Amino acid sequence: MLAPVKDASRRASARWPAAILDWGCARRLGVVRPGRRNGPLQPNQETPSGRQRWLAKQGDDVSTHSQQRGRNKWGCRITENSFPKISQQLAEWFRGWQRRLPCTGLELVSLQDGHLDVFADAYHALLEVDDFGPTSASKALFAVCPRAAIPWDAAIQDHFKDTFKLHGRTPEDYRAMLELSKDAGKGLMTDAARCGVVDPRNIPREIGRPEHTLAQLLDEYHWITITRGHEIPSRDELKRWVEWEARSATNERSR
Question: In terms of residue numbers, what domain contains 207?
Answer without folding.
Answer: 2-14+29-250
